[in-house]
Design goal:
Helix content is 68%, strand content 0%. By secondary structure, the chain is mainly α. Helix 1 packs antiparallel against helix 2, helix 2 runs antiparallel to helix 3 and helix 3 runs antiparallel to helix 4. The protein is globular.
Length: 112
């Protein structure tokens, strides 16, 4: 993984933590989704993004998201090297196999 991509993922995690600490939990989750989009082509980073989402769901007492992230963690371990639905935000609120549009700023990072 390129250093710029790794730094962008870490930046999204820092923003997520800061927003969650401020009580902006939905905004925090959006940053976790952005980190997921950036990391989903790399198995360890992909699993890590789902673990972060699982942690968010646990702290927010969101059973549906906890279950969704549990299944996605397993899928990330098993399938990342084979196929990922590009642009998928990774939350339990969307199909785990649905490709989605990539935000332009993230697309630029992924194309470099």
């Amino acid at each position: 993984m390129r250093i710029e991509l790794k730094q962008a993922i870490e930046h999204e995690y820092r923003l997520a933590a800061a927003r969650e600490a401020e009580g902006l939990t939905e905004v925090a989750f959006r940053h976790l989704e952005r980190a997921h989009i950036l990391s989903q082509r790399f198995t360890v980073a992909h699993v890590r993004s789902h673990l972060r989402m699982w942690g968010w769901a646990w702290r927010q007492r969101q059973p549906r998201e906890i279950f969704g992230q549990t299944t996605r963690i397993l899928a990330a371990v098993l399938f990342t090297r084979i196929w990922v639905p590009e642009g998928n935000t990774g939350g339990a609120n969307v199909s785990a196999v649905k490709p989605m549009p990539i935000p332009d700023d993230l697309k630029t990072l992924l194309e470099q």
